[in-house]
Amino acid sequence: MNQPILFLVGILALVAGAVLGYYARQSLAKRRAGTIEQKLQSRISQAEQEGSQILEKARQEARRVLETGKATEQLLLSRETVLDRQLLDFDEKNQEVQKRSALLLQQEQKLTEAKADIAKKLEIVAQMSQQEALGELMRRVEDLHEKDIVGRMKKLEAEGQERFERRAKEIVAYAVQKTAVSQAQEITTSTVVLPSEDIKGKIIGKEGRNIRSLERLAGVEIVVDETPEAVVISGFDPVRRHIAKTALERLIKDGRIHPARIEEEVAKAEKEIDQQMKEAGEATAYDLGIVGLDPKLIQLLGRLKFRTSYGQNVLLHSLEVAYLASALASEIGVNATIAKKAGLFHDIGKALDYEIEGSHVDIGMRVLEKFGVEKEVITAMKSHHEDYPYESIEAVIIQTADAISASRPGARKDTLENYLKRIGELENLAKSFQGVEKAYAIQAGREIRVFVKPGEIDDIASKNMARDIANRIQEELRYPGEIKVTLIRENRFVEVAR
Fold first, then answer.
1. 292-303 per-residue burial string, b: 16 or more CB within 10 A, e: under 16
2. Which of 88, 227, 310, 346 is most buried per CB count within 10 Å?
């Protein structure tokens, strides 16, 4: 019985505890709710206060902006008013200017009409037009001051001519002074010194076989005379003379002189001379600063070392002409490089004129064209003997430089007496033909012009006579290069109309 009672008491205690716990929680919740509500009310009050402050600030800012906008609007209105006033003033001034411009145009038109009226009246009074009056005035002024004008023109012309001549002399003198070098005269013979007279017999050989073999292989003439301890090699080709001299000197030094040995030494000498030509050409191009030349052209250039013209070495002459042409071109402001190359190659044809028919100018032009040398260089070099017309200022410079190099004292051995004698012989030979009226040697003896009597010589005979004169010159006279024969047959018929 105690157990049920105890169980019931326990249940009642649990129920009472639960009821008490519920009321206690309700009381606690009410207190907390009151605290939260107070906090919320406080925050709401604070937010309302801050909102009121922000609203007030916004109202104040709005009032300030509104006041500023009103001030700006007033300023713009005032400026617009000023601009309107200025525009009105501008329109008034523009109208005034237009009125004045129209007035000036009217006055100008009236003035033009007045001038035309005066000119017409003057033409009526003078009985001549305005142009005629102007021409008459100019004529009278010219007549009045003609002598004075002519005198001044002559004076200016003389002063200018004197100034130009003085400047030209200065340029030439400068070029000559800058490039002048000494020239060693060369002749058509070479002398070989012998160690003894006994060597002459070896050179001649049995029945003259050795000397004939050397002459045949080298293309020269060997003169063995009574000159002590010396033999002379004669020939107009300096290359052949040098080959023969080199071969003979080696044969003499070796002591073995016979046809087979002569042939061997001549072949060696030819190779040596070819090498010397190459080296001479390369050295010349290097001295002038000219690069990019074909090796064969350099070989031909070096060949001029063994070529002479009136005793003047052609390679040294070409080198001097190149320097002179470059100096002259630099002084007058034209292409110095073209002038230098043209001066160097102006006589390149002389390296082949013994082998190829034609003048050295024509041969040189063909050689330079073959090796692709600039057209300007060919144009400049082809006129140095006036065979072709001048086509550039460089051509005139080349002719001038060539003349300076050839004509200065000591350059060439050909004396005035020999020159005059050669020219006289040439003219006399042409005059010896029947029917020749006159004969003139020109171009320093490079050309002869023959005038025939038209009544005695017809066209066919004239052609034959030109060929006969050329053959006579070739057979009887000695001359360098070529001589051009020009035969002229002219008929003139004059009538007078009365």
1. ebeeebbbbbbb
2. 346
Place of tokens 């604070």: 46
Q: How far apart are CA 204 and CA 378, in angstroms?
A: 48
Which of 210, 273, 272, 203 has the alpha carbon at shortest distance from 231? 203
Exposure of 228 by Cβ count < 10 A (0-12 exposed, 13-18 middle, 19+ buried)? exposed
CB-based burial, 235-262: b 16+ in 10 Å, e otherwise: bebbbbbbbbbbbbebbbeeeebeeebb
3-state class (DSSP) for residue 453: coil
CB of 469 closer than 8 Å to CB of 457: no
Based on its alpha-carbon atoms, the radius of gyration of the chain, rounded to whole angstroms, reads 58
Helices (H) and strands (E) in the chain — how many of each? 14, 8
399-425 in b/e burial notation, b at 16+ Cβ within 10 A?
Answer: bbbbebbbeeeebbebeeeeeeebbeb
- Write out the two tokens for 193: 């010194």
Alpha helices in 255-359 (DSSP H): 259-288, 295-303, 314-332, 336-345
Taking the C-alpha atoms of residue 110 and residue 346, their distance in angstroms, rounded to an integer, is: 76
Above 60 in pLDDT, residue 257?
Answer: yes
3-state secondary structure of 69: helix
Instruction: Say if residue 4's pLDDT is above 70.
Output: no
pLDDT at 184: 43
With tokens 């003894």, the residue in question is: 196
Residue reference for tokens 């010194």:
193
